[in-house]
């Protein structure tokens, strides 16, 4: 089996590296543009959180179980259009986790909520009326897909409104030209994001920047 990949695994590795909790057993997590959320199943079984909401514009959220490329995908890993999220979780659990109590269906549905075919800003505008603030928000590899920088900053601000007072936001963006359809953040774009946050972690590799922070509280609000 190949390595587990994805933001949930990255979060777990970073907590170990920084020796810092980014969430607790009470935490409500929001993952905007979640893509493949499998690594959050892994995260849950490694360090419990209370609730995860994953939203994605894609009509069908697919969980890919890591397998080696040189082997055909086993029959029981094949996902069809009628495979439910719980069935996808069961497959992931069997092949990747399998060392702690598997969630039964009601517990899974209490813990994981998926909003497929949902645009981030529509969701956030609706959610304002429905949900308390989140403790940890992932905005990973999404902002740089928005062609207009002002729209992308607007989305960032909208997201910040949904972060609890002590909540943490995790932002990952491309800073280098990557391929068409990617609008990398330059240093001044990054500074704008940074200026709204009390920074917990800021790291760059050749292509991307990862910024983790809390909402900056102005002197008047203190
Ligand atoms: C590059 S993937 C990132 C997946 C995951 N967050 C990660 O970091 O690996 C971007 C995801 O954002 C979703 N997406 C793009 N625009 C969106 C929008 N406006 N609202 C919600 N999801 C969006 C895409 O469907 C895609 O699954």
Distinct small molecules bound, one entry per kind:
S-adenosylmethionine
Number of domains: 1
Gyration radius, to the nearest Å?
18 Å
Order of helices and strands: HEHEHHEHEHEHEE
Strands of the widest sheet, in order across it, are: 3-2-1-4-5-7-6
Helix tally? 7
CATH architecture: 3-Layer(aba) Sandwich
Cα-to-Cα separation, first versus last residue: 50 Å
Oligomer: single chain
Question: What class, by secondary structure content?
Answer: alpha/beta
**Can you tell me the CATH topology?**
Rossmann fold
* Mean pLDDT reading: 92
Looking at this structure, what is the CATH superfamily? Vaccinia Virus protein VP39
What is this structure's SSE topology?
Blueprint: H1 7-18, E1 28-32, H2 38-46, E2 51-56, H3 85-97, H4 105-111, E3 112-116, H5 120-130, E4 134-140, H6 149-160, E5 163-174, H7 187-195, E6 197-204, E7 208-215
Parallel strand pairs: 1-2, 1-4, 2-3, 4-5
Antiparallel strand pairs: 5-7, 6-7
The protein binds S-adenosylmethionine.
Report a brief summary of the structure.
The protein has helices at 7-18, 38-46, 85-97, 105-111, 120-130, 149-160, 187-195, and strands at residues 28-32, 51-56, 112-116, 134-140, 163-174, 197-204, 208-215. The protein is of the alpha/beta class.
Provide an overview of this structure.
The protein is α/β, with parallel strands linked by helices and 222 residues long. It has a single domain, classed as Rossmann fold. Helix content is 33%, strand content 23%. It has helices at residues 7-18, 38-46, 85-97, 105-111, 120-130, 149-160, 187-195; strands at 28-32, 51-56, 112-116, 134-140, 163-174, 197-204, 208-215. The model has no long low-confidence stretch (mean pLDDT 92). It binds S-adenosylmethionine. Residues 6-7, 33-35, 55-58, 119-120, 140-142, 145 line the site of S-adenosylmethionine. Residues 6-7, 33-35, 55-58, 119-120, 140-142, 145 line the site of S-adenosylmethionine (SAM).
């Amino acid at each position: 089996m190949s390595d587990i990949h994805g933001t949930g695994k990255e979060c777990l590795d970073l907590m170990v590296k920084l020796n810092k909790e980014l969430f607790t057993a009470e935490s409500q997590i929001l993952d905007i543009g979640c893509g493949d959320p499998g690594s959050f199943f892994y995260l849950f079984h490694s360090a419990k959180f209370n609730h995860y909401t994953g939203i994605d514009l894609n009509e069908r959220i697919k969980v890919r179980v890591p397998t080696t490329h040189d082997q055909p995908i086993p029959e029981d890993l094949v996902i069809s259009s009628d495979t439910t999220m719980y069935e996808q979780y069961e497959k992931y659990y069997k092949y990747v986790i399998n060392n702690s109590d598997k969630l039964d269906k009601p517990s899974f549905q209490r813990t994981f909520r998926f909003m497929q075919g949902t645009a981030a800003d529509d969701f956030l505008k609706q959610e304002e009326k429905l949900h308390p603030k989140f403790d940890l928000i992932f905005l990973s590899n999404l902002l740089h897909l928005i062609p207009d920088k002002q729209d992308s900053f607007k989305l960032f601000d909208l997201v910040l409104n949904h972060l609890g007072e002590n909540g943490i936001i995790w932002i990952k963006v491309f800073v280098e030209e990557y391929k068409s359809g990617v609008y990398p953040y330059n240093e001044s774009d990054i500074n704008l994001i940074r200026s709204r946050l009390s920074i917990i972690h800021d790291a760059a590799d050749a292509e991307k920047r990862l910024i983790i922070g809390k909402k900056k509280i102005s002197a008047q609000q203190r």
